[in-house]
Specification:
Blueprint lengths: L1 H13 L2 E8 H4 L7 E4 L11 H13 L6 H7 L6 E4 L5 E2 L11 E7 L5 E5 L15 H25 L2 E2 L1 H9 L9 H18 L4 H9 L7 H14 L9 E7 L2 E6 L7 E4 L4 E4 L12 E2 L3 H4 L22 H12 L2 E10 L5 E7 L1 H7 L4 E7 L7 E8 L3 H14 L2
Length: about 400
């Protein structure tokens, strides 16, 4: 297992993510049909989905023209017209509900070393939206604007630049106070700085709107790009026989699931926890949906909760009492990971690399489970984010994965 884990974590750390384009999902996701809806987390059918996920399905059906109104959308969601699959099955990731469908524009990220690709949808910006299950006219109009106006501009600029290396931006973000899951202020500013002159030069009368879309109330704009980069790295490490390294953590608002390198494509699940954290005025824990989203791919790569010490400014926002919580959280993640990432170092932590390569063997031995920094969604569709906190994962999926791997290896 040691040799297998060295290979797996080595592949994860050697990934060189380059943003190469923005393309509609149907052009880049092999096997995607118009009636297939991709969602975050492990597999789930519509009847079992949480309310925000169901609302997002309705929004997707309206956006794709499969349903003409909400009443028809509610019928189409359950009558067999739609097939539900996970984003991860298609090499993609999406925050919160993660809903991704046929016409949606996706970031295309390529590994310079292998040529393999990963995908993520574009951040909608602040407030409620598809990712929180809203299906209002405002949300639908924004999705169409992103598809028809913003995405073609982004695509043209990225191709003119010959691609954008994401690793240097992510590394610099760590040195500027981002942990790249719940705080992307610096990385968003850096990508905006890079894109700004090209948008101003090429976008014509749409330039102001596109610049506002990135720069005003969209501090998490870079998150989706970072998610695609980490999905790419994790997939590079998948399929190493005997490896106990985690290659996916994802939540669908009902279950949390993990996958490991040594058993590629197989999910190990448990009920998704309701997150303790800081709730916005007017909301309490009873208003919260269980943890949701593919954004836990950030912790798989060593960011988010693993790199929390890099982002002391986020501590209070997550409901923690002091910066010591950030220090202790990152320290505990070193105890359950295989390596420190040589490219992604934390200056405030004496330039140690982020703890990457979560090892289910170490999780089971130490009883320390990964900690995710996360937004807290309302348990009602279309309400949006009601708080933020730190999600401590249940240990059962890690135990089940270890037992399954042992059985597979005949141990």
């Amino acid at each position: 297992m040691q040799k297998a884990n060295e290979i797996a974590v080595g592949r994860l750390m050697s990934s060189e993510p380059v943003l190469i384009d923005v393309k509609p999902a149907y052009e880049v996701l092999n096997g995607l049909e118009r009636n297939i809806i991709l969602h975050s987390g492990p597999p789930i059918e519509f009847e079992q989905m949480c309310e925000p996920m169901k609302g997002a399905v309705y929004c997707a059906l309206l956006n794709e023209g499969i349903a003409k109104d909400i009443e028809e959308a509610k019928i189409k969601a359950v009558d067999g017209s739609v097939v539900y699959k996970t984003c991860h099955e298609f090499g993609a990731v999406g925050p919160m509900t993660g809903l991704t469908t046929w016409s949606m524009p996706l970031w295309v990220v390529e590994d310079r070393n292998t040529g393999k690709r990963s995908y993520a949808n574009i951040s909608e910006g602040s407030g409620v939206g598809l990712r929180f299950g809203e299906y209002s006219e405002k949300t639908l109009n924004r999705l169409k604007w992103m598809e028809r106006v913003a995405a073609p501009v982004f695509s043209r600029i990225i191709r003119e630049l010959g691609g954008i290396d994401l690793a240097p931006i992510m590394a610099q973000g760590l040195s500027m106070g981002d942990e790249l899951h719940m705080r992307n202020h610096a990385t968003t500013a850096l990508i905006l700085k890079l894109l700004c002159p090209h948008i101003a030069r090429t976008a014509g009368e749409d330039a102001e709107d596109i610049l506002k879309f990135i720069g005003v109330g969209n501090d998490q704009f870079f998150l989706n790009l970072a998610m695609a980069a980490n999905k790419l790295a994790a997939d590079a490490a998948d399929g190493v026989e005997g490896s106990t390294m985690v290659t996916a953590i994802a939540r669908n608002g009902v279950d949390i699931g993990i996958r490991i390198s040594g058993l590629p494509g197989r999910w190990f699940t448990a009920p998704s926890p309701v997150v303790d954290g800081l709730y916005f005025p007017g909301y309490v824990k009873e208003d919260a949906n269980p943890d949701i989203g593919d954004s836990a791919i950030m912790e798989v790569g060593g960011f988010g909760g693993c790199a929390m010490v890099a982002a002391p400014a986020i501590v209070r926002f997550l409901g923690a009492e002091s910066v010591q919580t950030a220090i202790d959280t990152t320290d505990s993640m070193y105890k359950i990971t295989l390596a420190e990432h040589p490219k992604y170092q934390i200056p405030i932590n004496d330039f140690r690399g982020v703890p990457c390569g979560i090892d289910i063997m170490k999780v089971v031995e130490t009883r320390i489970t990964p900690v995710l920094n996360t937004a807290i969604a309302s348990n009602r569709a279309g309400v949006g984010m009601v708080g933020a906190g730190m999600s401590v994962l249940p240990i059962e999926p890690f135990e089940e994965a270890l037992m399954a791997l042992a059985e597979n290896l005949g141990i």
